[in-house]
Design goal:
CATH topology: Jelly Rolls
Number of domains: 1
Distance between the termini: 36 Å
Low-confidence stretches: 1-17
Order of helices and strands: HEHEEHEEEEEEEEEEHEEHEEHEHHE
Radius of gyration: 20 Å
Bound molecules: 2-acetamido-2-deoxy-beta-D-glucopyranose
Strand content: 25-35%
């Protein structure tokens, strides 16, 4: 009796501790400039964009920070020469790297419009795909709902049945399999992406990564089930045990997370066209012209191609 109750008390304490994380980074407004580097690199996905540095982004107002807002967008003023560089846009990456952590993204608006391919994700670019990748929010051409996905080296597979509200797609996370589609989970609500996400005032994406699993939750702005410690913003601690069933759950049943996932940066990028948004089968199903012609000739079509992020909060 005595031993049994001591053990159950210990395991209770253990699980409560494991799911409670203290706030370590509260990135809000101008804080984005301290926490993130601007990556003026060639787009690895062949997009019709020209990623600019911080000075150019600020000079052209492609990023803008106020007390509680960070805007990141693509240019919506310039008609492009077909043989010149792509549309100016922005890709930012955290200076810090994370292993076990919770990240909460309070997002009011994501880029929308034909040709847009926004993403909020985590990876280690130097050793991709062997250090793993978690795509928290990603989509193209306003086609929702969002799919949350992992990409890894060989030997990481997800079980078909899991405790999640979303629907499993491919189960093999290996980036070398299935044309790098990864092991995705399609969320169960159209409010999770595109114009529908924006019309609802956005919402919160959150991820919890431990050595044993990765979970991602989504709550739309007016979802009555959004946990108090998420909604409050800047809470000193969060307790993921109280967050309910995740939208997407990636357990360690057939994936050794310690091996397949190493230290990750958080990346926020907005590309246009490229391998996915501009794909010759994907783009024409909902959008006009060719993707590249649309980007070149219709700057005003990109005025809603912006992120408005209230905060990125890291608990670790
Ligand atoms: C943008 O993010 C996605 C992650 O979902 C990634 O696959 C893609 O390579 C990124 N593109 C650029 C240009 O950074
Ligand atoms: C820059 O963008 C912000 C946010 O969209 C806007 O409020 C501000 O007026 C813009 N500044 C200029 C100089 O255009
Ligand atoms: C898998 O995760 C569970 C908890 O979710 C943990 O108890 C177990 O030790 C993990 N297995 C391995 C092989 O890491």
């Amino acid at each position: 009796m005595k031993t049994a109750s001591a053990i159950s008390l210990l395991s209770l304490a253990g699980s409560a501790f494991a799911a409670t994380y203290p706030l370590t980074s509260n990135i809000v407004g101008p804080g984005f400039y301290d926490a993130f580097d601007f990556q003026a690199i060639e787009d690895p996905t062949e997009g019709r964009v020209n990623y600019v540095n911080r000075a150019t982004a600020q000079a052209q107002n492609l990023t803008y920070a106020s007390r509680d807002t960070f805007i990141l967008r693509t240019d919506s003023k310039t008609v492009l020469r077909p043989d010149g560089p792509g549309r100016n846009s922005v890709r930012i990456r955290t200076k810090k790297v994370y292993k076990t952590h919770v990240a909460v993204f309070d997002v009011r608006h994501i880029p929308q419009g034909c040709g847009t391919w926004p993403a909020i994700w985590e990876t280690n670019e130097a050793v991709w795909p062997n250090g793993g990748e978690t795509d928290i929010l990603e989509g193209v051409n306003d086609q929702g709902p969002n799919s949350v996905s992992l990409h890894t080296g060989p030997g990481c597979v997800m079980p078909a049945t899991r405790l999640q509200t979303g629907t499993s797609l491919q189960l093999n996370c290996d980036a070398n399999a299935n044309d790098n589609s990864g092991c995705g989970v399609k969320l169960n609500t159209d409010l999770s992406y595109g114009p529908q996400f924006n019309a609802a005032g956005g919402g919160w994406y959150a991820t919890e990564r431990t050595p044993n699993f990765i979970k991602v939750w989504f709550w739309s702005r007016n979802d009555p089930t959004v946990p108090a410690d998420v909604k409050k913003g800047g809470a000193a601690t969060v307790n993921t045990d109280k967050w309910g069933t995740p939208s997407a759950f990636f357990p360690n049943t057939s994936c050794n997370f310690k091996k397949h996932f190493n230290e990750h940066n958080i990346i926020i990028n907005l590309t246009l066209c490229g391998d996915w948004a501009g794909n010759e089968y994907v783009y024409p199903s909902t959008c006009p012209l060719t993707c590249v012609d649309h980007v070149n000739s219709n700057p005003a079509a990109f005025k809603d191609a912006y992120f408005d992020i209230a905060a990125v909060r890291i608990y670790s």
